[in-house]
Amino acid sequence: MADAATTGKQGMFFRSSFERNAQINGWMFVMPALVLIGMFMIYPVLWSLWMSFQVGRGMNLSFGGLSNFRRLLDDPILQRALFNTAIFLIVQVPIMLTLALILASALNSPRLVGRAFFRTAIFLPCVTSLVAYSVLFKSMFSADGVINDFLLWTRLIGEPIPWLLDPFWARIVIIIAITWRWTGYNMIFYLAALQNIDKSIYEAARIDGVPAYARFLHITVPLLKPVILFTSVISTIGTLQLFDEIVNFFPDGSPGDSTLTLSVYIYNLTFRFMPSFGYAALVSYVIVILVAILSYVQFLVARDRRG
Predict the structure, then answer these.
(1) How many angstroms separate the CA atoms of 215 and 213, rounded?
(2) Is 187 within a domain?
(3) What sign results for the dihedral spanned by CA atoms 144, 148, 153, 159?
(4) How many Cβ atoms sit within 10 Å of the Cβ of residue 62?
(5) Which domain covers residue 27, as residue numbers?
(6) Is the dihedral of CA 51, 57, 61, 65 positive or negative?
(7) Within a domain: residue 57?
(8) Which helix (H) or strand (E) element contains residue 162?
(9) Is 61 a member of any domain?
């Protein structure tokens, strides 16, 4: 009996030692990733939060309390950037997601000839070089570009449209460019989700005489609600961080700051004018707060209310 008890204790000791070593080895494997996350994500976030309370020019910073917050409430340029960002968000995101959903439904039809070609063609813009497509769009929408030439040739307009010089048309160009670039990206998510829907649901609805538009509205859209929520959240985040297209289309500034966004304003505060790192850090948290609020609202709207 004593030998059995001794053997049992030794077995428990070895098991506990093995489990402890396994835990140590596991932490050793993930430690490099945790260190990198702490260095390049957590530390910059905490440091930017501390900088938002700093005032001064360049690196000559000092603690200013709530000075930046008071400046934030009275900043007319920030209000203009918020207004422009809201326009892009309200106009462009619904158009892009609706167009992506319609294209995904059309390309999911087995009767469509050349589905692979159309899927590739529509998805291709989102992997195109940003600089290359910006240069192409600028040349297309210039005063003597192909867009004005086509509109004049078809007699739809009487004189060239100042696409890149007028505040209203400058916003239209940005909306068209972003929609062209990212519609295919969202379409892939919808297309993957559509292929996982049981085909018997559509067959039953078709036998019952449900028309195509009703099947789309009452079957496709409700079943895709989680994917629609996901694409709407990531599209909202991307639009609030809109930067690349604005800088490439208007490197010297847009007409009347008509396309100035929050990210471009942060860049201007940091690098373009006299550096104001503390205030730029605070403006960046405006984007964080907007992302959190809008994402929460979208989750509330899309949640299942049957409970």
Answers:
(1) 5
(2) yes
(3) negative
(4) 9
(5) 2-51
(6) negative
(7) no
(8) none
(9) no
- Asked whether residue 35 falls in the same domain as residue 111, the answer is no
What's the DSSP call for residue 82? H
Cβ atoms of residues 136 and 177 within 8 Å = no
Q: Count up the domains in the chain and report the number.
A: 2
The dihedrals phi and psi of 210, each to the nearest 5 degrees, come to -75, 125
147 in the same domain as 8 = no
Better-predicted residue by pLDDT, 274 or 232: 232
The position carrying tokens 């961080």 is 241
201-244, pLDDT tens digit by residue? 888 888 888 888 888 888 888 888 889 888 999 999 999 888 88
CATH number at residue 208: 1.10.3720.10
Tokens of 6: 């001794």
Q: How far is CA 250 from CA 19, 117, 165, in A?
A: 60, 33, 10
Q: Three-state SS for 58?
A: coil
C-alpha angle with apex 286: 280 to 287, nearest 5 degrees? 100
Mean pLDDT, residues 182-192 taken together? 91
Rounded to whole angstroms, the Cα distance separating 52 from 277 reads 8
